[in-house]
Every structure is written in C-alpha cells, then in structure tokens.
Amino acid sequence: MLRILSPILIAAVMLMIYLFSAQDGAASLGTSDIIVNVMIGSAGKSAAEGAVSIPETGAGADAEDASADTKAFQHAEAPDADNAKRRKTITDLVRKAGHIGEFALLAFLIALHVSLYRKRPWLWAIASCAVYAAGDELHQLLPAGRSASITDVLIDICGAAAGAVLFLLLTRRRLPADH
Question: Are 103 and 163 in contact (CB under 8 A)?
C-alpha cells in the first residue's frame, strides 16, 4: 500500500509547490496575506489603526487635552510605519515558514518512499529536495513580479533536512557511525 500511496503523495506535494511558484507576485502576496491576517486577527486591526493611549501627566492635566493628544498621536505616521514594518516582518516569516514546511513534508515523504528500496533514505530525500528547490526557484523567474533567490533554495534545503530528521526520529533510524 505504501509503495502506491507514497508516490501519489509526493507528486501532490510537488504539484502544490509548483502551483504556489506559478503564482504571479500579487497572487503570491495575497496567499501570504490570508495567513498573516488570520495570525494578526483583531489585534492587527487595532494596531493598524495605531490605537495608543497617552496617560495624563501631572496633577493639573486636563482630560480634554489628554484626549486631543491621544487622537493626534493615533493619526501620526510613526505608528503606521511601525505597523507596516511589523506586518512585513510577519509576512516574510510566514513566507519562509511556508518554504520550510513544504520541503519538510516533501523530504519526509521521499524518505518514506525511498526507505522501501534503498539505504540512507534521508540522504536521498535531502538531495532530491535540493534539486527540486533549485528548479522551483528557476521556475519563479517566469511569473510576473517573482524572482529567484539562492536564500530560498537554502531555506528549502533546511526544510528538507528537518523533514529528513523527522523521518529518522519517527522511524527510529540512526545516522551511520561514520557520519
């Protein structure tokens, strides 16, 4: 059963990676934004609005003056710029986590399948994922608004290594003593 199911699952993950890479820049960012919006939730909305309260200072501070100061501060550019930076950082992390997750899953499935036929399936999995990652980045040169990145290839390989380690842990296989 595993001999039939594992290649189907591998092909499905490879197709998923391919389809994500085939998205143009705007669509790819939109996909990431869905996840970022779920993560930020309602906290993101209040942060995007720059809602910050300024406490009253001194014994004679007037409540109306403090309220006016708070409103002026809420509309200042600094909180919006900080929130934009935070959102970009979160978006970048989500995108890189996606790379790691995709290739960890792919490597795990490849190692599982290769373990039926060969020794050191973890090595085959990492090598296969490295080749696919390089091809995936070259493929990203085609859609508008996308580019290739050697950093993404390295992140993909790290994800593949994580998937291979997970495979080793779950199947109780050990690295050879000479490694």
Answer: yes
Q: Where are the domains of the chain?
A: 2-171
User: pLDDT tens digits for 108-136?
Assistant: 999 999 999 999 999 999 999 999 999 99
Q: Tokens 């189907």 identify what position?
A: 8
Instruction: Tell me the per-residue pLDDT of 19-59, one tens digit each, with 9 for 90 and over.
Output: 999 999 899 988 999 989 888 874 444 334 443 333 444 44
pTM of the model: 0.73
**DSSP SS3 for 147:** coil
Q: Which of 1, 16, 11, 5 is nearest to 98 (CA)?
A: 16
Q: Could you tell me how many helices (H) and strands (E) the chain has, helices first?
A: 6, 0
> Residue 108 burial by CB count (10 A; 0-12/13-18/19+): exposed, middle or buried?
buried
Burial class from Cβ neighbours inside 10 Å (0-12, 13-18, 19+) for residue 30 reads exposed
Q: Which position has the higher pLDDT, 104 or 76?
A: 104
Rounded-to-integer distance, Cα 34 and Cα 38, Å: 6
How much is the pLDDT for 50?
41
Place of tokens 């296969």: 128
